Amino acid sequence: MQTHFTEAQKANPDIAEADKILRNCVHCGFCTATCPTYTLLGDELDSPRGRIYLIKDMLENDRPATEQVVKHLDRCLSCLSCMSTCPSGVHYMHLIDHARVHVEETYKRPWFDRLQREVLARLIPYPNRFKAALALGALAKPLAALMPSKLKAMLDVAPLPVGRSAMDEPGTYKADGQRQHRVAILPGCAQRAIAPEINDATLRLLRRHGAEVVFPANATCCGSLVHHMGREEQSHAQAKAMIDAWWPETTEGGGQGLDAIVINASGCGTTVKDYGFMLRNDAAYAEKAALVSSLAKDISEFLATIGLMTPAIETGQRVTYHAACSLQHGQQVRNQPKDLLAAAGFTVSEAAEAHLCCGSAGTYNLLQPEIATRLRDRKLGNIAATGPEIIAAGNIGCITQLAGKAGVPVVHTVELLDWATGGPKPAGI
Questions:
Q1: Which residues are within 8 A (CB) of 194 and not within 5 positions of it... i.e. 6 or more apart?
Q2: Residue of higher predicted confidence among 406 and 149
Q3: Is the pTM of the predicted complex or chain greater than 0.90?
C-alpha cells in the first residue's frame, strides 16, 4: 500500500509505525474471510481491509475522526483473526490501537457513550469497585426491561459478585515439595471479582508442579481494558504500575529471579506481552517493559513447557475447548491447552469456526451488544454440535459471555487441569 505521510508526520513514532504497518498491506483481502464482523455484516468497512483504508485516510490527512470512522472502528472486536490470516504480516493490532487513541483524542462521542465508557474504565479495573457495582446491578436486574438497550445489555451479562480468593492477599506461596520453578502471577481485576476460583485453581496447580508463586504487592490492572478503549494515558499508567510490582522479583530488580510471569486471562496476557512495544519510547520503562514481556507466559504455555504431572483421577468427560481470540490469534497459543486437557484424561473436541470470536472481546459485549449477541449465539450453536459435557476456555471474558446460555458448565482450562491432578471438582460439574 502506498502512503503519503510527510516527514514531519513521521517524526511522531506512532505515525512512523502506522506508516510501516500500512505499507505491508497488499490489499489481498484474505483478512475478510476470517473477520467476524465482515462475516456477519458483509460490509467492506467492517472488515480489516476496510478499516485499514479508513485509518490510513484519517491519519494521513491528520483529520479528526468522523462519525462514520468511529462506527466502523468501534465495531472491530480486536480479535486479531486477521493477523492469523494475513500473508503479509500486517500488524493490525498496533494499527487499530493507535487509531483508537486518535479517536479518543479527536472525536466527541454522544453523552451516553461517553458516560458508559467512563463508568467501565473507572469500575472494571478495580476489583472492589467492580464487586460493589455488580451487587447494585443484581438489585437493578428486575428493572432491566425498562432501561436503554445498552444499559440492559450490561445488566444481562453482569454476573453476581462472589467471594474472595486466597490470592487477594499479596505474598509468596511455597511449592509443594521441592521448588523447581519460581513464577510471579497476574492476579487480574475483573476475574478476581467474577471468578476468584480461577486464581485459586491456578495457584494450586502451579504449586503442585513445583512452582513457588509470587503474588506481588501493589498489583493492579494490567491496562488491557482501557488500552483497547483508546485511553492511552490510563493504560500506560496501569502497565507501569504492574511492571513496578513485578520488577523487584526479577534478578535485574534485585530479587530472586523469575522463570515466568504466569497469566491465566488471555486478554491480559496479550497486552502484557506487548508492554515492550507499548512503552518502547519511554526511557524510564522501555527496558523493564521488554523484560516483563519476555517473561510473560499464558498458564497453558508454562504448563506445556514443564510438563503436566500424571493425572490423579480419571475424569473422561467430553470437553469442547473454546479458543479465546486473544490466545489463539493474539498470542498464537493454539495446541497447548487442548494437548494438556487430553493429557489430563478428557476427551477433547473443538467446534467448527473456532477462529471466530464469541463476542466478548473485553468490553465489546457491553458496548456493541447486538453484534456480540449474534456472535455468541453462532459460537454456542457450533459448540452444541460437538455434544460437550463441559466447555473449557482460557479467558474470563469468554467464560462470562458463554456461561449464561451454554446449557453446560463453562470453566477455565486450569480448573479442569487442577481437578484432574488432585484439586477439587469445579463448581457446577
A1: 134, 159, 161, 162, 396, 400
A2: 406
A3: yes
